[in-house]
Write a structure and sequence with these properties.
By secondary structure, the chain is mainly alpha-helical. The protein contains five helices and no strands. The longest helix has 27 residues. It is elongated, with a radius of gyration of 25 Å. The model has no long low-confidence stretch (mean pLDDT 86).
């Protein structure tokens, strides 16, 4: 009868550490940059608008005038521009900027292959 009235429950705490994926860490970084939003706006517009897009358009035209690659370069610039002009939070603008950089790099690689063939 003693065991029915005074049951002993053995509990052990096993602390689990959860590690975030690379995407999760990147998104946490983006959310943490909210107080530097104007700095990111300036960097994105300067780097993409003054450096990456002109280089990409020039290489596209030098490799052979491909209207589709030219338009994709302009759309990549528009991705970065529209998200910043719409005053989106940094958790949206920084990944959009990274995506537009990836698009520009893909255009540059495809232009190199077009020029070599």
């Amino acid at each position: 009868m003693e065991t029915t009235l005074h049951q002993t429950i053995n509990t052990t705490y096993t602390g689990e550490t959860t590690s975030l994926s690379m995407w999760g860490r990147f998104m946490n970084y983006c959310q943490g940059q909210e107080n530097n939003r104007l700095l990111w706006l300036g960097v994105i517009l300067m780097v993409h608008g003054c450096i990456l897009t002109p280089i990409t358009v020039f290489v596209t035209l030098a490799a052979g005038p491909s209207f589709s690659l030219f338009m994709v370069a302009i759309v990549a610039m528009a991705i970065a521009l529209v998200t910043n002009l719409a005053a989106m939070p940094t958790r949206i603008t920084i990944p959009a900027f990274a995506l537009s950089i990836v698009i520009d790099i893909a255009i540059l690689v495809s232009c190199v292959f077009l020029a070599l063939s």
